[in-house]
Amino acid sequence: MLIATSSVTLWFVLLLPFLGSLVVAGLPTRSRDAAALLAGAVAFAGTVFMAALYPRVADGTILQAGVSWLPSLGLNIVLRLDGLTWIFAMLVLAIGFLVVVYARYYMSPRDPVPRFFSFLLAFMGSMLALVLSGNLVQMAFFWELTSLTSFLLIGYWHQNESARSAARMALIVTAAGGLCLLVGVLLIGKIVGSYDLDTVLASGDRIRASSLYLPALILILIGAFTKSAQFPFHFWLPHAMAAPTPVSAYLHSATMVKAGVFLLIRLWPVLAGSDAWYLIVTSVGLITLILGAWAAIFQQDLKGLLAYSTISHLGIITLLLGIGSPLAAVAAIFHTVNHATFKASLFMAAGIIDHEAGTRDLRKLSGLYRFMPVTATLAMVAAAAMAGVPLLNGFLSKEMLLAEALEDTNETFLDQALPYLVTVGLIFSVLYSVRFIHQSFFGPPATKLERRPHEAPHWMRLPIEILVLACVVIGIFPAVTIGPFLDVAVRAALGGGAPEYSLAIWHGFSKPLLLSVIALVLGTAAYLVFARSLNAADAVPLLGRLRGRRMFDAVLSVLVSGTRWLEDWLGTRRLQPQLRLMVLVACAVALLPFLRHGYAPGTAPRTLIDPGFALIWLIGSACAVAGAWQAKYHRLAAVVLVSGTGLASCIGFVWLSAPDLALTQLLVETVTTVLLLLGLRWLPKRLPDNWPGKRTPASVVLRRGSDLAIAVAAGGGVAALAYAMMTRPLPDAISRFFLERSYAEGGGRNVVNVILVDFRAFDTLGEITVLAIVALTVFSLLRRFRPARESVRDPEQQRLQDAFDEAHAGRAPGDTVSDYLVVPRVILEWVFPFIVVIALYLFLRGHDLPGGGFAAGVAMSIALILQYMAAGTRSVEARLRVRPTDWIAGGLLIAAATGAGALLFDHPFLTSWFRYLEVPLVGKTPLATALLFDLGVFLLVVGATALILIAIAHQSIRRPVRPLRGGDETGVEKR
Amino acid sequence: MELVLALGIGILTASGVWLILRPRTFQVILGLSLISYAVNMFIYAMGRLKVDAPPIVGSGAVEASRYDDPLPQALVLTAIVISFAMTALLLVVLLASRGITGTDHVDGDDGE
Fold first, then answer.
1. Residue B109, pLDDT above cutoff 80
2. Is residue A142 domain-resident?
3. Co-location of A520 and A610 in the same domain
4. pLDDT (tens digit, 9 = 90+) per residue, A24-51?
5. Residues 8-27 of B with CB under 8 A from A
6. Segment among A54-63, A72-81, A154-163, A409-418 with least mean pLDDT
7. Residue A654 located in a structural domain
8. Angle formed at CA A795 by CA A790 and CA A797, multiple of 5 degrees
C-alpha cells in the first residue's frame, strides 16, 4: 500500500509540470497573472509532494514506479527516487517555485508571458524526469528534452538576433552532446545487457573491465561536459545569457547545467576509479575552473560575469568528481546544492539591478547601495558565499575542495600541482566576487543611468531572501540543516560505502584554512590594485584568440559547405539518373547471392504447360512490349495495350486458383483505364520526330541503348529469380494456420477474405486509410489544378460539334454529342441498378466465395462512373448526389468502430466475433462482425475510387482558369 | 507453366523498366503499371502454382496441401487496389506539374 501510494505521488509530481505547461500554453497572451499563479501552484505543489516523500527515502529505500514499454528491448519507463535524486528533484522544484515568483515581477506585461511559463514548466518536467529516470535510455531522452526547452527559453525574445543565435548554439552543442551520451549509454547497455539503472550500478567492475569502457566513458563525458559547460564546450553558456534572467537563474546556473554533473555523480560508482577517468575529468574540471574564473574577472556585463563564474564553479564540481575519492564526491554533491542557492540568488539580484538601473554594464553601475540597500545586502551575502567567506555555505564546500586537493591521491604531476592551481582559481573567484559587489553597489552614485533606481517590489526580492537565508543557515549550522539530507544523498550516490566526514565550520588550524585565507586576502588585494585597469578591459587577456564561438562558427560553416559540396557532387535532381541508379543497384544487390551460391532451377515437379495459358501470356507479353513501344507517340494505343496485359494477368489469376485476385484485377483494370483516359485530355500533343531532317544524336542512341540493356537485365533477372523460386517446394509456413482456422475460427470459407477482414484486419485498416489519404490528396491537388496553355481549349472534336450546333437553328451546344451517345446512355442508365446489385452480391458473398469489400467497392464505383460517362457530369449530378467524402469517412469510421468494439468485450483491437444462426427458410447462416468491417472497406473503396475519378472528370467542366503563362485563348464554359 | 509465367513476368518487368527510364511522364505512369502487374504476379507466384485449387475451404477438417496458398493472394489483393491509388496520385501530380511547368518532361524542364 505504501509503495503504491508513493508511486502514485511520483507519477503525479512528474506529470504535473507537463500538464501545467499544456494548460498555461492555452491561456490568452496577456494573462500574466493567471499564468504565473498556475505555474507557481504547480511548482509549489510539486515541492510539497516531493518533500513529503522524504521520509520514504531517508532510510536508504529506493522508490520505484514504472510501466513496461518495450520489455523485449529492455526499454521500460521507470521512475526511481533515492536520496540523491530527491535532493536534485527538490532543487528543481523549490528553486523552480522561487523563479516563478520572481519571474512574475520580472517579465514585462508586454511580452507573451504564458508562453514563457509554459516553456518553464515544460523544462521543469523534463528536468524532473531526467533526474527521476531509472532507465538510461529514458534519461538520455529527457536529457535532450531539457536541451530543447532550454533552446525555447533562450530564444524566448526571438525578435532579438542574439537570442536566436545563442539559442541555436546552445541547442547544437548540448543536443550533439546528448547524442554522444545516447551512444555512450547504448554501449553501457551492450556491456551490461540492460539499461536499468539498478542493474548498471551493480555492474561497475564489469563495465570498467570491458574493452568498450573507454569509448563509453568518453562519449558519456562529452555529454556531461557539453551540458555542464565544461572546457572546451563552455562557450555556449555565456551566450545563453541572452535569455530572460529568470531562465539564467534557473536553467543556466541552478538546474540544467547541473544535469551533466548529476550524470557524473549518478554513474560515479560505475565509471570512476580508472586512470582515464581521473586524468580526463580532473584536468577538464581544473582547466574549466581556472579559465572560467579568469574570464569572469574581465567581464563588464553582470550576467556575463555570473555566467563565467558558473562555468568555473561547475569546473570545481567536475574536478571534485574527477579526484575520485568518496570524500570528494561528497564535496561535489554539497557544492552542487550550495552553488544552486547562491548563484540563483545572484542572478536574481543581477536581474533586479538590470530592471531598476536599466543596464547591466559594470562600468556604468556604481553606488547602487543607497538606492536599494536590501537587494545590495542580499547580493553581498550571496557573493560572499560565492567567494567562500566563512559562516556561509560556499566556505564549507570550498574547504572540502581544498582538503581533497591537498590529499595525496596518486603520484602524478597533476595531483602534486592541484592545491596550487586550485588556490589560483579561488583567488580569481574572490577577485570577481569583490568586483561584482564593489563596482555595482559602492562608490559614488552612478551618473550614466537612464532612470533613478529604487528598491524592487517585495515579492520580487522574496525569492532572493529565501535563498540567501539558506546560504547563511547552511553556512552556520551545516550539521543540523543540510547534514541529514546530504547524508542520505551521499549514501544513495556512492552505494552504501559512504565515507566518514564532518560538516563543521571549525576544523582547527589546517592547511585548507590557510589556503582559504590566502585566497581571500590575495583576491581582495588584487582587486584593490587592478580595479581601474579591469574596467578598461575590452577582452579577456591571454584567451582572446581562444574564442569558442569563433571555433564553433568555423566548424559549422565547414559542415554546411561540406554537405553542399557532397550534395552537388553526389546528388541529382533529375529523375532519370535517380531511377537508373536505383534499378542498377537493385539488380546488383539481387545478383550478389547468385554470384556467391550459384544459380540452379529447383527440383519440384513442374505444372504441366497448358497451350491456352501459354497463348494468353504470349499475348500479354506482346501487349506489354508493344505498349512500351507506343507509349510516346500513341498514348491511347498504349493505354489499350497495357490494359491487354492487365487482362492477361487477370486470366492468369483465374487459371492459377486465385479467383479473388482475378475479380479485383478485372474491376481495377476498368477504373484504371478510365482514369488514364481522363488524364490523356491534359497532355500535350507529341510530334513524332524530335530531330526533323537530322539523324538522332549519338548520345541519345547511346542512352537508349543503355536503358534497353538495363531493362533487359532487370527483366531477365526477375524472370530467373521467379523461375528458381517457383520450381522449389513450398516450405510449410503460416498459410496452413490460415487455411485450417479460417472456417473454424473466422467463420468464412473464402480464406483470402477472412485473412483480409479478420486475421490481418489491422493491415487492411492501414491499407484503406492509405487509400482514403490518397483520394483526398488527389482531390485537393486538383482543386488548384491549372492546365497547360494549349490544353485549356476544348478538344478539337468537341469544338467541331459545338460549332455545328451553333450554326444550326434549334440546336443547343452539346446536342450532337448527346445524340451520338443516346444508345449507350440508355443502356448504361438501365444497367446501373444491375451493377449495384452485382456489387452488393459480391460484397455479401465475400466471406464464403470470391468477392468481398474491395471488389464490391470498385464495382460500385464503376456503376457510378459509367453514369458520368454516359450522361455527362452535369446531368448526373443534377439527379444523383454522390458525396464521396462522406462514403470515405463513414467507411473508415465503421471499420475502426468495429475494431474498437472488441475492446468493449475485453478483447484486443479488431478481434472478430461470429455465430451461426438458424434463419428460417435460409438455414444456417454465419453472422460475423468481420462482415461489418468489410462494410467499412466497401464504403471506403467506393468513396475513394469515386472521389478520384469524379475529381479528374470535373476538370473538364470547370470554367477554365487563367492560363499560367498568359496566352490568347479565351475560356469557353463547357456543358 | 512455371517457365511461361517466369518469362511473362520478366518481359513485363523489362517493358516497365524501359518505360520508367523514359523522359515523358505518361511513359513513366504506364511503366509503373506494367511493373505493378509483374510484381503482383511475382508475389502471387511465391505461393507456387496450383490449378483448380482456390483457397475456398469446406466446413469440415481442412487438408491444407489441397489448396492454393492464400497468403500471397491476400497480399496481392490489397496491392492491386493500392496500385490503382498510386497510379491516380501519380497521374494527378504529373498533370499538375505539366500545368505549372508547361512540359510533360519528368523533370519539368525539356533541357535539350
1. no
2. no
3. no
4. 998 888 888 999 999 999 999 999 999 9
5. 8-27
6. A409-418
7. yes
8. 145
**pLDDT attached to residue A692:** 63
Contact check, Cβ <8 Å, A708/B12: no
Q: Residue A20 falls within a domain, yes or no?
A: no
Q: Would you say A524 and A434 are in contact if contact means Cβ atoms under 8 Å apart?
A: yes
Position A687 scores a pLDDT of 65
Question: Do A287 and A350 lie in a common domain?
Answer: yes
Q: B18 and A621: CB-CB below 8 Å?
A: no
Q: Does A788 lie in the same domain as A675?
A: no
A828 shares a domain with A800: yes
Confidence check: pLDDT of A945 > 90: yes
Q: What is the pLDDT of residue A689?
A: 61
Q: The cell 497521374 sits on which residue?
A: B91
Q: Residue A534's pLDDT is what?
A: 82
Beta-bridge mates of residue A196: A135
Per-residue pLDDT of A395-446, as tens digits, reads 888 888 888 888 876 777 778 888 889 999 999 999 999 999 998 888 888 7
Residue scoring higher pLDDT (A962 or B2): B2
Tally of structural domains, chain A: 3
User: Any residues with CB less than 8 A from the CB of A551 and at least 6 apart, and which?
Assistant: A232, A235
User: What is residue B41's DSSP assignment?
Assistant: H
Rg (C-alpha) for chain A, rounded Å, is 39
User: Model confidence over A298-341: pLDDT tens digits?
Assistant: 988 999 999 999 999 999 999 999 988 888 888 999 999 999 99
CA-nearest residue of chain B to A792? B99
Identify all chain A residues contacting B90, using CB atoms and an 8 Å cutoff. Answer: none
Interface of A with B in 248-307 (CB under 8 A): none
Q: Looking at the complex, does the CB of residue A392 fall below 8 Å from at least one CB of chain B?
A: no
Partner residue facing B41 (CB), from A638, A652, A683 = A652
Count of beta carbons in the 10 Å neighbourhood of residue A448: 12
Asked if A848 is an interface residue toward chain B (Cβ–Cβ < 8 A), one would say yes
A873 and A946 part of one domain: yes
The nearest CA of chain B is from the CA of A778 a distance in Å of 6
- Whether the CB of A627 is below 8 Å from some CB of chain B: the reply is yes
Q: Is residue A303 part of a domain?
A: yes
A425 SS3 class = helix
* Partner residue opposite B93 with nearest CB, options A635, A665, A781: A781
Residues A654 and A721 in one domain: yes
- A58–chain B Cβ distance below 8 A for any pair: no
Whether residue A232 has a cis bond before it, omega within 30° of 0:
yes
The predicted-structure confidence for A460-483, as pLDDT tens digits, reads as follows 899 999 999 999 999 888 888 888
Question: Would you say B20 and B94 are in contact if contact means Cβ atoms under 8 Å apart?
Answer: no
Nearest CB to A722: which of B30, B40, B42? B42
Closest CA to A584 of A723, A764, A734, A712: A712
Q: What is the pLDDT of residue A907?
A: 80
For A680, the domain range is 572-684+702-731
Residue A866 cell numbers, joined: 459509367
Asked whether residue A368 falls in the same domain as residue A418, the answer is yes
Query: Which chain A residue has the Cα nearest residue B56?
Result: A750
To the nearest whole Å, the CA of A554 is away from the closest chain B CA by 36
Q: Domain check: are A719 and A801 in the same one?
A: no
